[in-house]
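User: structure tokens for this one?
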Amino acid sequence: MSGTSTKQERLAAAARVLAAAEESARCPAAGASAPPPSRMPGESASSAAARLWVAGDQPADLPDPVQPDGEDEARQIVLNQLTLGPRTRKQLADKLRERDYDADVAARVLDRMSAVGLVDDAAFAETVVRTKQAGRGLSKRALAQELRWKGVDDDVVAETLGSIDDESERARAEELVARKIRAMGGLEPHVQSRRLQGMLARKGYPSSVIYAVVRDAVNGAPEHQRD
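Assistant:
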């Protein structure tokens, strides 16, 4: 509960800085004498929002002006989505479209969120690759499919997955097979092969990698070695 509460407060902090910047832009004379209390002298609204997001500060003294055309409500929907977990811009845009928000309103809200780093498809992609390659052992192809399905641009997908070469892909497949085969003692070699191949196929590995890795693992298993 405390982690969720802290994240909600940080999201609210960034949102309130954005709201204050918008109010100042509409009434420049009122805010010309001094920067808002939550901004450093000479600091832009975007930088202030990003700093507050990282630090977790809560700018309680900033106003909450009403946004035109439902922008305030749309922004709150986006913030609520982000408290549930990382989202791509497309996922958030789809959510706003489901709620019948105008495309221009959604674009303005998401542009502001992107400007302060609350919506960042590149960071989202890196998180997915790091967690699902290490945790579930997904292949490069499977990771690319998942990122594209969630709306990450092809260029971002290619850049994020660029560090995964054929050698590291095979090494990950070998780790998965080595761990799995330890629980297959007593099974016939063809049964082990079939199950291991199915496991790697479900994780998206190419057939050339699957065949080579499974063949080496099964043939090299101590129980299948000739005396």
